[in-house]
Model the fold of this input.
Amino acid sequence: MDTNHLSAEVVQSFIAKVFIGLGMPTQDATLCADLMVRTDLSGADGHGVFRLLQYARRIKSGGINLNPQMRLLQDAPSIGLLHGDNAMGHLVMHRCAELAIAKAQVTGIGWMGCCYGNHAGAGSTYANLVSEAGLVGIYMAVGSANHMAPWGGVDPLLSTNPIAISVPTSNQQGPVVLDMVTTVAAYGKVKMKAQAGEPMPVGWMIDKQGNPLTDPKRSSEGTLLPIGDYKGYGLSLMIALLAGSMNGAAVGSQLVDFNDDETAVTNTGQTIIAVNPEFLAGFQNMTQSADQLINEIKSSKPLPHVSKIRVPGDGAAQAKQKRSVDGIPIPAGLLKNLHTCAELAGIDPIQLN
Done:
């Protein structure tokens, strides 16, 4: 299938124009576009411009509040809870990251939870905002639809519930970044397979009889498998409690599937934590120790079939370097969806290079 490549600037400008055309204030549209393109540059293709049509349809249907009045429900020196007022999730989490950073700079740690947000893209985007401030960023979220059953069950009562951790280093390549869902594959990858007309690998999903499910268009008939079997299920549950229940956000059967419902308020729960290393062993000591460990890992002996050993964040850094030059890949199916976005927003279609 043909794949075009567009510069980050072109993609970012188009996203902003779509949002503005749909009625979003220019400042908010510009920020959302920036955060989405950051995701695309990192190689997380299921969470950037790929999601634009879904967001556009939800906005068009009234499922997202374009003029939110976000407010703090709780605000203490090191912790707080933000009511997102059903705003774009990117705006809610950007504000939470700002507040967490400010708290950590004063008290050593900033823990910000939110309720009544929406899907916000890749968790690493917000963890990285924290590490760019010289702090350690930790992000957790309740996914925007239930796709995982409890271990041994068939009813989807948990989501992919991602966690992202970003630790700054003095390495020019950037921070060490772990960004993972608690299922074998993110649901965004299932959607990408469906868009491309490709089957899923065995091991991503099972049907209600426990048999492998490989047709992404039948994904509603099955559940995603957790990483590490029961351990992934347990991790997903704990993230649901920390980012959902503790924030007064939706969990379990209360969760709204934003893939199927474009109008209902999702009440998505997310948490961002900023930790200031200066209140522990110090920033310099942390980065020096991190660099030493990373160098030891990368210079360690690989298995015979492995060309080199990598650490979390290497792939994102390499993707950013490559895509900053070559552009962001836009497969034919995505290009078609972007034309639909332009029609919904009443703007000119995106222009190919």
Q: What stands out?
A: The CA atoms of residues 150 and 233 lie 6 Å apart. DSSP finds ten helices and twelve strands in the chain.
